[in-house]
Amino acid sequence: DHPQQNWSKQQIDRAAKDHVVFTYGPTDAQRDAVPLLRRGEGSYLYDDDGKQYLDWTSQAVCANLGHTVPQSVKAAVAQQLDTLPYVYGGLGLVEPRARLASLLSEILPGDLNGFLFPSSGAEANEAAIRIARQFTGRSKILTRYRSYHGGTATALSATGDFRRNFIEDAPGFVRLMDPNPMQFSWGRDMADASERARGALREQVLGEGPDTIAAILVEAIPGSAGVLLPPDGYLQAIRSICDEFGIVMIIDEVMAGFGRTGKMFGFQRFDDVLPDIVTFAKGLTAAWLPLAGVAMRSHIQDHFRTNPLGYGATYQAHPVSLACGYAVVKHMLDEDIVGRVQRETAPVMEAEMASLVEDFACIRQARAVGLFACCDLVSTKTGDRVAPMAGGGPNAEKVAAFKRALKEEGLIAFFRNCMIHVCPPLTITPEELRDGFGRLRRALSSVD
Ligand code: PLP
């Protein structure tokens, strides 16, 4: 009875086949693997036949409060639409912009007190890079090989770990060696990893010329790259090198931020790390409307009081998204969502991930921090990692079978390269989380 939701599956499939362009796939041949989703509730999604799927990924690790919108968020969005649906951020100020900035300044540590609001994570990183360049008068940006910072040209140039598909890197980006050894063996031999990384990083900064480097941009815990918890001391090493050479330290919290790691921000898992700039998106509105943020410390904010950044985008500081963001963050605080992750579901996640490795020869290197978890799927015959995105290859059949088994079990899982990501909504209950591991185990058993 909803005027925009009354097409049959056949009508939708036909129109999608004729007119919808998918970006990461599915290709025409893989289309059947993707469910037509009709409805969401809590941690679950339902397809056209009413089949239930547990959302094991929070979609792009962003639907952090699941698929039921709290009344307070609906009311805030409706009220903004009723009173003032849109004002261009460059031409007028609206109340939710001031309120959200004030609230964020309370939850971010130190003097991370100045905010701008782009509409995606990639744009937030692009803005942060521009801020660092304008603030320092330098141009180079140092980022990690194991990283993802977004799909636009500049953000992709900052990214180490993704297919480029016809985009050349922009000039001025320099890649850093990672503290986590490449072969996912980060669980071993990490005792002096941060000292080695500090030495290598300092050498590289000196080699590049410190007075050419605007910023070091890193995820506190690289997410898409495989939830790679850095060794203790690594972020502190970056902080001290940035201090030594007047380099801006930017932490990308687009995926890790807003409770994913069991802290409000991922960098707060490490003592004494106060970045100069923090970027975030996704969880800020629980993905219900597009909104991102760039937080900057006072010394940087002060610079832009007299030297405007000149950053403009039609949807930056969109009033409806801001109203949604404010209501979501307020809801998270009122309901102690992050505390509940830490106390109730993170311990279940840790234990379940650890026992997967014990029970399945094809699972290696389980890592979990809060509800941010990942493990590697390996071939039990050769020990090689199984890489579904590579296409074809000796493991192609196994990968296809595993994906079919996941669908049959009703588990929407993010499976990239050799990695199975486990990032359910932060509102998942311990029982639902255990149920998800049951589904994953059955899918693994059917292909192990
Ligand atoms: N930075 C990180 C760490 C991310 O994980 C992502 C998206 O996955 C982005 C940036 C890009 O965000 P968006 O897709 O909103 O542009």
Automatic annotation (TrEMBL):
Keywords: Pyridoxal phosphate. CDD domains: OAT_like. PROSITE patterns: AA_TRANSFER_CLASS_3 (PS00600). GO terms for cellular component: cytosol. Signal peptide: none annotated. Pfam families: Aminotran_3 (PF00202). Gene3D superfamilies: Aspartate Aminotransferase, domain 1, Type I PLP-dependent aspartate aminotransferase-like (Major domain). GO terms for molecular function: pyridoxal phosphate binding; transaminase activity. Belongs to the class-III pyridoxal-phosphate-dependent aminotransferase family. This is Uncharacterized protein. It comes from Pelagomonas calceolata. The lineage of its organism: Eukaryota, Sar, Stramenopiles, Ochrophyta, Pelagophyceae.
